[in-house]
Specification:
Pathway: Amino-acid biosynthesis; L-histidine biosynthesis; L-histidine from 5-phospho-alpha-D-ribose 1-diphosphate: step 5/9
Shape: globular
Structural class: alpha/beta
Protein name: Imidazole glycerol phosphate synthase subunit HisH
Subcellular location: Cytoplasm
Organism: Sutterella seckii
Order of helices and strands: EHEHEHHEHEEEEHEEEEEH
Largest sheet: 9 strands, mixed
Strand content: 25-35%
CATH class: Alpha Beta
CATH superfamily: Class I glutamine amidotransferase (GATase) domain
Distance between the termini: 15 Å
CATH topology: Rossmann fold
GO molecular function: glutaminase activity; imidazoleglycerol-phosphate synthase activity; lyase activity
Helix content: 25-40%
CATH architecture: 3-Layer(aba) Sandwich
Length: about 200
């Protein structure tokens, strides 16, 4: 199996690559269009602000390449947000537009932002949720670090709550994303990555 982690220049590339390697697959970290299009699975990682991430994608000529992909793609943390049509972060920025939702700051009341730490995730009964969360109980714990998220919307396949309900995972067509960091979520995160890759764990 050929697995590509898109070289978006973000800080969680190596930790994600190590997590995939522990599943017995050596991923390629690349932005070469031929290698990306030939992959069986593609990861879209991201950390930082939406505006900076989109600027980096544009600099690396990645937006149109990502939109053209037909194989399964999984966005991680900010990578999930990048799939949306727009984020209100840093004054507002247009995103990839692959999931018809907008990203906004979490409304958490007196709770601290960023939302940093472990939180329970509740998938729905959609086919993609059953695939990604196979073998994981509803309410499993995953690790989050974020201040912005998609509100619950028509593409939400899993929810979490921090001050308010928000999208913990979303999917449309061959594109899916998780707001949490599976590569930092222990056995549950490893199982989710294995499910996405279609390997036994």
């Amino acid at each position: 199996m050929r697995v590509v982690i898109l070289d978006t220049g973000c800080a969680n590339l190596l930790s994600l690559a190590r997590a995939v390697s522990r599943l017995g697959i050596d991923p390629e970290v690349t932005r070469d269009p031929k290698l990306v299009k030939a992959a069986d699975r593609v990861f879209l990682p991201g950390v930082g602000t939406a505006r900076a991430a989109m600027a980096e994608l544009e600099k690396r000529e990645l937006p149109d390449l990502i939109r053209s992909l037909t194989q399964p793609v999984l966005g991680i943390c900010l990578g999930e947000q990048l799939l949306a049509k727009r984020s209100e972060e840093t004054g507002g920025v247009d995103m990839l537009g692959l999931i018809p939702a907008e990203v906004r700051e979490l409304r958490v009341g007196s709770l601290p932002l960023p939302h940093m730490g472990w939180n329970r995730v509740f998938p729905d009964d959609s086919p993609m949720a059953k695939h990604l969360f196979k073998g994981l109980p509803a309410g499993e714990w995953f690790y989050f670090v974020h201040s912005y998220a998609m509100p619950v919307n028509e593409c939400t396949i899993a929810r979490a709550e921090y001050g308010e309900p928000f999208t913990a995972a979303a999917a449309r067509d061959n594109f899916a994303g998780v707001q949490f960091h599976p590569e930092r979520s222990g056995k549950a995160g490893a199982r989710l990555l294995a499910n996405f890759l279609g390997v036994e764990r």
